[in-house]
Design goal:
Elements lengths: L13 H13 L4 H31 L5 H8 L1
């Protein structure tokens, strides 16, 4: 079974296009593979940023300032 693909055209500065081509060649990947990997990494970073934000808000709400506070609360 073949994965269906969508073609997305993007524009980047010429210098970035050259760097993308160079990195793709160095990594022995197509430029499409490199861009898919970059997007997956972007999503991963964005998801973890949300998790860290929730953690900071929870720590502030529960007055957690140290690992000892976490141990005290967790029991």
């Amino acid at each position: 079974m073949q994965t269906q693909r969508a073609i997305i055209n993007i524009s980047v500065p010429q210098a970035m296009a050259k760097r993308i081509a160079k990195v793709a060649k160095e990594e022995n990947k197509t430029q499409s593979e490199l861009m898919r990997e970059a997007f997956r990494n972007y999503e991963w970073d964005r998801d973890w940023a949300k998790i860290r934000k929730i953690g900071r808000e929870t720590a502030r709400r529960m007055n957690i300032k140290s690992y000892e506070d976490v141990e005290r609360i967790a029991g």
